[in-house]
């Protein structure tokens, strides 16, 4: 019954201290999100409005994308359309090759991770430098993001300090103070900004009415990536469109509050055209999004704002880390996106969910994340990826609970398991026994105790505190 996610998570669960820190860190972010929500009486109204705006926009994408691209082109911005990841990478490389770019500095972008742009460009001789601090750390380590907002949060400051010392970024051996390491990273990245030939940003929101590309960061790396080099390239998924500034204001009030527990990001930058003497390109990427939109049961996944709140609250993600998932985006939203992308490659993630629905309750755009995962589970058999072991177990449980005589007999015989040798109970046949202690079965079942009158009638009114002795 083991899945790829379960197998991968075992590796990380071998370090209880690190897992506990990971769990507590993200639960702390979830608590910050809750405090932000409680400060706004209109919080639920904002979530409902955001849901309606995204629902309207993604179901009218063609109109809004046409308006958005028209506004950009009126100001001299070059707009490109990419059908898939391959075409996106080719377009970006074509732009860079035309301008003889040797070094590209880029702001954080999960779309470029989705399209695997970095290795594509690096294999063609272009130096790609991540400028978000977390992204830069994991790039230097040769890792992938473990979270879409806090990509290096799984690392300790000692691990980062050791990396910086090894690469010469830090000059004080043993000084792993976060402020010092951050300053070292700034000096290191400053040289990269100064010597870059082109800059790239992602896009949190594209405003159709005005043609604004809106980028939200806490480090200002997007501004540095666009103010130093004269060539600016924007990587944007087509679902990032919002109709107007009024819609943008709703999304902006929710994004940081849900993702990091902040009222707003430190920097919110609007890019409408190229800098003086420069050039700006926007690449609008589909890469399967149109197909997602046609899926009647799962299209609402496109409403996602990529805030990461569902990961912060997910008990499975917090206790297994992002690297246990097969899709590059982990957590509840990653489970759904992965299944929409390739059920064959990512169906193992569907079991990584308790169906607590906490993800659905915190999502700023009210994406029904947990409910969609449940629907994916029901579709595994039709897709050909159901577990034969679970299927036979379900049939056995149905026979047990559907037959009164069999059920009563099982209850009476259950205490026998208490005296059975441990090796008979704790083996590969008993998945629950791995990491858990089995319960001790009582000699008498609750049903039997109730029938024999051994339990006080719970339907009687319980006396109030202090009234017991007055009877």
Structure report:
It is a single chain. The protein is of the alpha/beta class and 471 residues long. It has 23 helices and 10 strands. The protein has helices at 4-13, 16-38, 43-58, 61-74, 85-98, 110-114, 117-122, 133-141, 157-167, 178-195, 221-227, 245-259, 289-293, 309-313, 315-320, 331-341, 343-346, 358-362, 369-383, 388-401, 404-413, 422-425, 446-451, and strands at residues 78-82, 103-106, 127-130, 198-201, 205-207, 212-217, 231-237, 241-242, 267-271, 279-285. It has a 6-stranded parallel sheet with strand order 1-10-7-4-2-3, with helices on both faces. A hairpin with a 4-residue loop joins strand 5 (205-207) and strand 6 (212-217). The radius of gyration is 27 Å and the shape is globular. The protein starts with a helix and ends in a 20-residue tail after the last helix.
What are its keywords?
four-stranded mixed sheet, 23 helices, 49% helix, 471 residues, 10 strands, six-stranded parallel sheet, alpha/beta
N-to-C CA distance: 56 Å
Q: What's the shape?
A: globular
Helix percent band:
40-55%
The strand line-up of the biggest sheet is 1-10-7-4-2-3
Which percent band covers the strand fraction? 5-15%
Structural class: alpha/beta
Q: Tell me, rounded to a whole number, the average pLDDT.
A: 92
Oligomer: single chain
Compute the gyration radius: what is it? 27 Å
Uncertain runs are: none
What can be said about the biggest beta sheet? 6 strands, parallel
Question: What's the topology here?
Answer:
Elements: H1 4-13, H2 16-38, H3 43-58, H4 61-74, E1 78-82, H5 85-98, E2 103-106, H6 110-114, H7 117-122, E3 127-130, H8 133-141, H9 157-167, H10 178-195, E4 198-201, E5 205-207, E6 212-217, H11 221-227, E7 231-237, E8 241-242, H12 245-259, E9 267-271, E10 279-285, H13 289-293, H14 309-313, H15 315-320, H16 331-341, H17 343-346, H18 358-362, H19 369-383, H20 388-401, H21 404-413, H22 422-425, H23 446-451
Parallel strand pairs: 1-10, 2-3, 2-4, 4-7, 5-8, 7-10
Antiparallel strand pairs: 5-6, 6-9
């Amino acid at each position: 019954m083991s899945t790829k996610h379960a197998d991968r998570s075992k590796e990380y669960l071998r370090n209880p201290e690190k897992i506990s820190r990971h769990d507590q860190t993200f639960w702390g972010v979830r608590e910050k999100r809750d405090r932000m929500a409680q400060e706004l009486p209109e919080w639920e109204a904002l979530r409902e409005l955001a849901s309606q705006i995204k629902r309207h926009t993604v179901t009218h994408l063609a109109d809004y994308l046409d308006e958005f691209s028209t506004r950009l082109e009126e100001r001299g911005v070059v707009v490109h359309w990419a059908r898939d990841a391959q075409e996106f990478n080719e377009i970006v490389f074509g732009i860079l090759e035309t301008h003889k770019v040797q070094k590209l500095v880029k702001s954080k972008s999960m779309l470029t991770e989705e399209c695997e742009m970095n290795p594509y460009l690096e294999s063609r001789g272009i130096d790609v430098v991540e400028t978000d601090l977390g992204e830069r750390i994991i790039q230097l380590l040769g890792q992938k993001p473990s979270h879409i907002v806090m990509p290096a949060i799984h690392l300790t400051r000692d691990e980062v300090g050791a990396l910086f010392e090894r690469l010469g970024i830090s000059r004080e051996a043993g000084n792993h103070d976060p402020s010092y390491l951050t300053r070292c990273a700034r000096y290191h990245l400053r040289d990269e900004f100064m010597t870059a030939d082109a800059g790239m940003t992602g896009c949190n929101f594209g405003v159709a009415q005005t043609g604004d590309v809106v980028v939200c960061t806490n480090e200002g790396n997007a501004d540095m990536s666009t103010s130093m080099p004269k060539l600016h390239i924007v990587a944007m998924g087509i679902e990032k469109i919002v109709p107007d500034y009024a819609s943008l204001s709703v999304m902006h009030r929710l994004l940081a509050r849900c993702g990091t527990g902040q009222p707003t990001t430190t920097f919110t930058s609007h890019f409408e055209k190229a800098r003086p003497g420069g050039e700006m390109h926007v690449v609008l990427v589909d890469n399967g999004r149109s197909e997602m939109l046609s899926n009647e049961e799962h299209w609402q996944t496109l409403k996602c704002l990529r805030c990461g709140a569902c990961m912060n609250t997910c008990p499975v993600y917090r206790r297994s880390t992002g690297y246990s998932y097969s899709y590059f985006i982990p957590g509840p939203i990653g489970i759904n996106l992965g299944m929409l992308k390739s059920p064959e490659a990512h169906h193992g993630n569907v079991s990584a969910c308790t169906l607590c629905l906490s993800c659905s309750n915190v999502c700023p755009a009210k994406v029904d994340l947990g409910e969609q995962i449940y629907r994916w589970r029901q579709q595994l058999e039709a897709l050909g990826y159901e577990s034969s072991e679970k299927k036979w177990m379900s049939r056995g449980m149905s026979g047990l609970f559907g037959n009164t005589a069999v059920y009563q007999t099982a209850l009476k015989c259950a205490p026998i398991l208490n005296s059975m040798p441990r090796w008979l109970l704790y083996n590969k046949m008993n998945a629950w026994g791995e990491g858990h202690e089995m319960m001790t079965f009582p000699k008498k079942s609750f049903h039997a105790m109730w029938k024999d009158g051994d339990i006080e009638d719970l339907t009687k009114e319980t006396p109030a505190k202090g009234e017991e002795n007055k009877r």
